[in-house]
Design goal:
Length: 445
């Protein structure tokens, strides 16, 4: 069922102005929108439970069996509520009632390798007794923005064909994370001088409960030692025990890097004198294309569930500066539309004519946000107002700007400039997986 255009205009107007309005009942909204996530009504909709997830995913865009995107056009808070936080899974969420490895009572974390002095296994209770810190940080799937490789760059056909989930701009959220810093973990086990890499590994992220997992992510030990107080083992999210869909009971936390580096359902840390090669740094979460020559493995490197000939590109690490308006994207070319997306293919959201305030989010975890600019229909760039102070470089900021359109079609572009002076570019090079799209987004209204 299509939403009545007048009703959709009301929702977008309420969003743009930041107005508080009385909405319809959940049942009425569901009936009138065909189960869609309506624009600007704080995402209210029918509860939607899915066997692949634990939490109610009724506020998320339904991408597929194991992935749910955030409805970014409904974001209006500095901290993203867990109910609105995207889920990026390779397989269904492990449940403690089916797999004791994710039950806090039975959870164990093995820390070992030829580059540690003391192999150690810790329990959940052990972890809770360790010194911990909290950090507010964006978490972003590196596929966030993939839709714009199709919509803006036109990468739809071989040899320049992008494949993957169409996240729109919903593969991102901001949370407060409570974690034990790696500085404490490294002191616990004792780091040898020969340490080269650390592997964060999930022993449970498999196709079925109690089956072998091929999910984890390594990083150079030098990168950990550069930020030992910021990288760590997270056990709380937004003040509550880590939810199942977000890695409970414990996940790695690597602020600023792609979300895949913050391994969920952590059961093993291996620190070694060699590099590691796994699915998430060889052919998945990897930039593959003519601009990204793959690295050469060392003779003693460790391969888990992959072969040397599967090193196809450069693993994604740091996330560049990005920006997004709290408006849904117009999707013309995306191969698959989310089943509950608020717009039909090719449809633009409708704003009311006259003065209003549009808002959005900007983040640049590699350096921090310096400024946000906006332009309309290819005109001059103008500064947006940054609403929030930036607590640290890993946080996003909210921004807004006045807009007073006459009736007609508009293209609104947003651009983040980080504290090193790097601005979002007009385009980014092709990569097959559609990762790390950080070019200027275009919003059609």
């Amino acid at each position: 069922m299509q939403m009545d255009p007048g009703r959709r205009r009301f929702f977008v107007t309420a969003l743009a102005c930041g107005a508080a309005v009385a909405g319809p009942s959940i049942a009425q909204a569901a009936a009138e929108t065909g189960g869609r996530l309506t624009i600007g009504d704080a995402g209210r909709g029918p509860s939607r439970f899915h066997p692949s997830f634990v939490k109610d995913v009724g506020l998320l865009t339904d991408l597929n069996r194991t992935n749910q995107g955030g409805a970014w056009w409904n974001f209006d808070t500095y901290i993203t509520p867990v109910s609105q936080f995207y889920i990026r899974n390779a397989f269904p969420t492990p449940r403690p009632e089916l797999d004791q490895h994710v039950d806090p009572r039975h959870w164990r974390l093995r820390i070992h390798g030829d580059a540690v002095e003391r192999e150690t296994t810790i329990t959940y209770d052990d972890l809770l007794k360790m010194p911990s810190r909290s950090i507010v940080s964006v978490m972003q799937c590196t596929g966030n923005g993939r839709s714009l490789f199709w919509e803006q760059e036109g990468y739809l056909d071989d040899p320049y064909k992008v494949v993957g989930n169409g996240w729109g701009l919903g593969g991102v959220g901001q949370a407060e994370w409570q974690y034990v810093p790696m500085s404490h973990i490294l002191d616990l086990v004792g780091l040898k001088p020969n340490a080269k890499a650390v592997l964060f590994w999930s022993g449970v992220d498999g196709k079925a409960p109690n089956t072998a997992s091929d999910t984890g992510r390594p990083m150079p030990i030098a990168d950990v030692l550069a930020r030992p107080e910021e990288i760590g083992l997270a056990f709380k999210m937004n003040g509550m025990p880590l939810p199942a869909d977000h890695g409970a009971p414990v996940r790695a936390l690597v602020p600023g890097w792609c979300g895949g580096a913050s391994t969920k359902w952590l059961t093993e840390i291996k620190i070694a004198s060699h590099d590691f090669w796994v699915r998430l740094n060889t052919f998945d979460h990897t930039m593959m294309g003519p601009d990204y020559p793959p690295p050469t493995p060392g003779p003693n490197d460790e391969f888990r569930f992959v072969r040397p000939d599967q090193l196809l590109g450069i693993p994604v690490t740091w996330q560049e500066g990005r920006s997004a308006l709290a408006l849904p994207l117009t999707l013309n070319r995306q191969p698959d539309m989310p089943s509950n997306y608020p717009l039909d293919r090719g449809e633009r959201p409708v704003l009311r004519a006259g003065a209003q305030l549009l808002r959005g989010y900007a983040w640049a975890p590699n350096a921090g946000v310096r400024r946000v600019d906006v332009r309309i229909n290819g005109g001059a760039w103008e500064s947006a107002r940054i609403v929030d102070p930036q607590v640290n470089r890993y946080t996003w900021v909210r921004f807004d700007f006045p807009f007073a359109p006459a009736p007609g079609d508009y293209v609104i572009e947003t651009r983040t400039t980080d504290r090193n002076g790097n601005a979002q570019p007009a385009s980014v090079p092709f990569n097959k997986g559609g990762y790390n799209f950080f070019a200027i987004p275009k919003f059609m209204v």
